């Protein structure tokens, strides 16, 4: 139908609020018509930028904007090797921008293009952390007062704060934690929060793939009496066949997927009904095009969505989550980290949290703009990433 073509593709990197964010702007041959997409791989943003500018832009400039499906497959296959995090994020930036453009062309929000709303607002979970039991409980109360019914409880960050470790001299620097202390403290935390506030709140927890498989199975069984809403990233993607063992032993709901890149990582877990929630990072799997297919695939097997929504997703990426959430019948819950004032200034039109639900604006496309002049005031952080340098008590490196 339309002969509108891609005129230019640019990358805007910015860090207004503590995370490197990457946005791709696709400009068209029609004056004033452009789209924005999220390509944020916060710890490797320069590599993503290079793929967009040096490889995808020459591939796509001059092509029609209308055929998103064809362009997605063209981008995905063009380098022959595929399904890696850098290429997937680069593809996502352009893919989401094309959906944004299509929405503007149709004068519809993206959720309308997907089939309209299944609900008016999107229920979210918030993250209640604290150094001790009372601090976590205080944060749980704070979120409940804001109308939030789903709260992820953690004590001392992912893996907990370890104390009294006996570590060999000259061990490498890093973030040390003790799996046994973490498990014991997490059980105490669930016991404490349930004892204080009962069951009129949904509790979630993120294990961050830090335990060995059999430790993970034991944690899931031990938490079952406290009725968690879900247990997140219990096992690393490399150990996912253990979910079969886990499923036979307890009914603790399982949410998995923020590390996934390749469809082969989720297909068997969903088709064999080994998980309850899929929570991929949608730019990490290549954008809205594969994410909407994944949501529909999950619906066939009774698996709900819980897209990854941390601080290292741009507001455009959060909007993509929210538009999918508004549409998908099998929406489960949405992670929401909160978008501060500075992010809202740089990205006018951000989704808003009100009384426990997040709402998208009703503008065409994703409904979000980017103030490039303001974005330029917040350069990215190029320091070596520290928090992923996690180690066990004897000094062995372990997953972050
Ligand atoms: Mg997580």
Task: Spell out the key features of this protein.
10-stranded mixed beta sheet; Enolase-like, domain 1; 13 helices; 2 domains; 3-stranded antiparallel beta sheet; TIM Barrel; binds magnesium ion; 400 residues; single chain; alpha/beta
Describe the structure.
- It is a single chain.
- The chain has 400 residues and is an alpha/beta fold.
- The protein has 2 domains: 6-109, Enolase-like, N-terminal domain (Enolase-like, domain 1); 113-362, TIM Barrel.
- It has 13 helices and 15 strands.
- Helix 1 (45-60) crosses helix 3, helix 2 (68-78) packs antiparallel against helix 3 and helix 6 runs parallel beside helix 7 (213-223).
- The structure holds magnesium ion.
- Residues 206, 232-233, 258 line the site of magnesium ion.
Question: In brief, what are we looking at here?
Answer:
This protein is an alpha/beta fold.
């Amino acid at each position: 139908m339309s002969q509108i073509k891609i005129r230019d593709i640019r990358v805007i990197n910015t860090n207004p609020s503590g995370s490197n964010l990457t946005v791709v702007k696709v400009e068209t041959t029609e004056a004033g018509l452009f789209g924005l997409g999220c390509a944020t791989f916060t710890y490797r943003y320069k590599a993503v930028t290079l793929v967009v500018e040096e490889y995808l832009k020459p591939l796509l400039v001059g092509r029609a904007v209308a055929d998103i499906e064809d362009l997605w497959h063209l981008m995905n296959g063009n380098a022959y090797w595929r399904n890696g995090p850098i290429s997937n994020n680069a593809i996502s930036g352009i893919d989401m921008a094309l959906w944004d453009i299509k929405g503007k062309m149709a004068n519809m929000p993206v959720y309308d293009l997907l089939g309209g709303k299944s609900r008016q607002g999107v229920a979210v979970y918030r993250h209640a952390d604290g150094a001790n039991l009372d601090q976590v409980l205080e944060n749980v109360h704070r979120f409940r007062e804001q109308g939030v019914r789903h709260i992820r409880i953690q004590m001392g960050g992912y893996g907990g704060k370890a104390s009294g470790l006996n570590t060999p001299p000259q061990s490498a620097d890093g973030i040390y934690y003790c799996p046994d202390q973490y498990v014991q403290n997490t059980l105490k935390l669930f016991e404490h929060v349930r004892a204080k506030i009962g069951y009129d709140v949904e509790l979630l927890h993120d294990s961050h793939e830090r335990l060995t498989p059999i430790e993970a199975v034991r944690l899931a069984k031990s938490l079952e009496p406290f009725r968690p809403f879900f247990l997140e990233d219990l096992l690393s993607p490399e150990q996912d066949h253990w979910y079969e063992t886990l499923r036979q032993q307890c009914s603790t709901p399982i949410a998995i997927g923020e590390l996934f890149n390749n469809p082969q990582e989720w297909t068997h877990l969903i088709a064999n009904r080994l998980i309850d929630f899929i929570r991929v990072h949608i730019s990490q799997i290549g954008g809205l095009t594969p994410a909407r297919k994944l949501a529909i695939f999950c619906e066939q097997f009774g698996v709900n969505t819980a897209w990854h929504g941390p601080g290292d997703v741009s507001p455009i990426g959060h909007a993509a989550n929210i538009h999918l959430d508004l549409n998908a019948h099998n929406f489960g819950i949405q992670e929401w980290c909160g978008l501060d004032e500075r992010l809202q200034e740089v990205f006018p039109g951000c989704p808003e949290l009100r009384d426990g639900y997040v709402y998208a604006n009703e503008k065409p496309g994703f409904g979000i703009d980017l103030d490039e002049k303001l974005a330029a005031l917040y350069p990215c952080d190029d320091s070596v990433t520290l928090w992923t340098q996690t180690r066990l008590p004897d000094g062995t490196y372990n997953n972050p």
